[in-house]
Amino acid sequence: MRKLIVGSFVSLDGVTEAPTSWIGAYFDDECKEYAYRKLENVEFFLLGRVTYEMFSARWPQVKGDTYIDRINGLKKLVASRTLKNLTWNASLINGDVAVELADIKKQAGGDIMKYGVSNLDQTLIATGLVDQYDLWAVPKVVRQGKRVFQDVDPALVRLGLVDMHRFGNGVVVLNYVLR
Predict the structure, then answer these.
(1) Which has the least CB within 10 A, 62, 64, 67, 132?
(2) Which has the closest alpha carbon to 54: 139, 118, 147, 143?
(3) Could you list the residue range(s) of the whole structural domain that residue 102 is in?
(4) What is the DSSP string of 5-71?
C-alpha cells in the first residue's frame, strides 16, 4: 500500500505560504540532496490547482537539475474542479478527492508526495489519507502569509514525531505521523 507524504517549508513564525520568496539560500545543496533522496520511492506528485499552475509554468523548462528532473518525471495528480487541460505528465482528480486518492493508495506501487500544507489538507487529514508530514523548519522569520495548518481543523492535527534531520545551515526536517 502506498503512503501519502506531505512536505512543507515552515518559517520559525509558522508561515508556509510562498516559500520561494523567503527560502533563499536555505535550500542549499545539502537540503536538495536530502529532498531528492526523499523522492526515491515516490511514484506520484499530488498538487492542488494553485501549486500545479505555479510549478507547471516553470519546472518543466528546467533541465539538467537532478532534483527537478526527478519531479518532472513523476506522474502528477492534480486536485481541481476548475482546470480542464493539464500538461506536465498530469492527471486530473475532479471528483471526490478522498475517494480517488484512497483507491490509488490501495494499489501497489510507489508513494504519493505532496508539497505544501494547503486547503486540500483539511480533506486529506479528515479522511485519514495523510501518512506523514515532513515539516522543514527554516530559521527565518517571515511575519506574513498563510500559516501551516491554517486551513485545517486543529482538532484533527494530532502529530507524533518519528524522526528528524538537521542540516548544517540550521534547517531541521521534522517527520511526523498522524495519531
Answers:
(1) 64
(2) 118
(3) 4-44+91-178
(4) EEEEEEETT-B-S-GGGT-GGGS-HHHHHHHHHHTTTEEEEEEEHHHHHHHHHHGGG--S-HHHHHH
Measured CA to CA, the distance from residue 88 to residue 24 in angstroms comes to 26
70 found inside a domain: no
Residue 73 lies in a domain: no
Strands 4-11 and 111-115: parallel
Q: What is the pLDDT of residues 119-132, one digit of tens each?
A: 899 999 999 999 99
In a domain, 61, yes or no: no
pLDDT at 119: 87
Residue 156 grid coordinates: 484533527
User: Could you report the per-residue pLDDT of 57-100, keeping only the tens digit for each?
Assistant: 999 999 999 999 999 999 999 999 999 999 999 999 988 999 99
Q: Which residues pair with 6 in a beta bridge?
A: 114, 133
What are the residues whose beta carbons fall under 8 Å from the beta carbon of 54, sequence distance 6 or more? none
109-157 pLDDT, tens digit each: 999 999 999 889 999 999 999 999 999 999 999 999 999 999 899 999 9
Give the CATH number for residue 9.
3.40.430.10
Q: How many domains does the chain contain in total?
A: 1
